[in-house]
């Protein structure tokens, strides 16, 4: 982990179809708090453009977010907290800045890439199945595959990740690229247990390194006349 990309007290996530709109939204919020806060780091990200109902792909070419819940009734089990205090109706955001070594990945054959994920690259289906959303059979996946290790702990999270590209790494001349991994969960323990299991033996670690991390409490939405975080500050 690099200290400059780790921790922080406040996080802002701004999303828009136009990157300039998102940038100015963040800039104006920071400008309003200029005498109170100091920016630690900022990162622009992007997702694949296409059918909004389809799962986007990461820079390794694999679908990212297949296991996300999609039904409203499941959100309470995965995303929203069951707290009765100021976190009621909120969620926890886990952030990881993950550098991806594309040159190493590109030299890896397709079978090895698929073994790393435990899914077929083209369809996104888990090994032994035909459709992206077919139920995963852990026994059919390599023991060190990313999907198997993430599924083993049975702690679902909601992923909303974005790819990033920051030019080149001067020392190597290679692309400085990666994934801004965002996960939302009703309890931080879900993310911690998944990440602990992945960190021990995930084959993906041959192609990525985690360089930044943070955990943030996200307030519930507000009604007319209310403001964000009102239950905490009053």
What's this model, at a glance?
By secondary structure, the chain is α+β, with helices and mostly antiparallel strands.
Strand percent estimate: 15-25%
The gyration radius over C-alpha positions equals 19 Å
The outline comes out as: globular
- What class would the helix/strand composition place it in? alpha+beta
Largest sheet: 5 strands, antiparallel
Proportion of helical residues: 25-40%
Number of helices: 7
What would the average pLDDT be, to the nearest integer? Answer: 95
How many separate structural domains? 1
Give the strand tally.
5
Terminal residue distance: 36 Å
Q: What low-confidence regions span 5 or more consecutive residues with pLDDT below 50?
A: none
Order of helices and strands: HHEHHHEEEHEH
Q: If you had to describe this structure to a student in words, what would you say it looks like?
A:
Belongs to the DyP-type peroxidase family. The chain is of the alpha+beta class and 234 residues long. The chain has one domain. It is 25% helix and 18% strand. The protein contains 7 helices and 5 strands. A hairpin with a 4-residue loop joins β3 (162-169) and β4. The radius of gyration is 19 Å and the shape is globular.
Annotation keywords:
single chain; 7 helices; five-stranded antiparallel beta sheet; 234 residues; 18% strand; alpha+beta; 25% helix
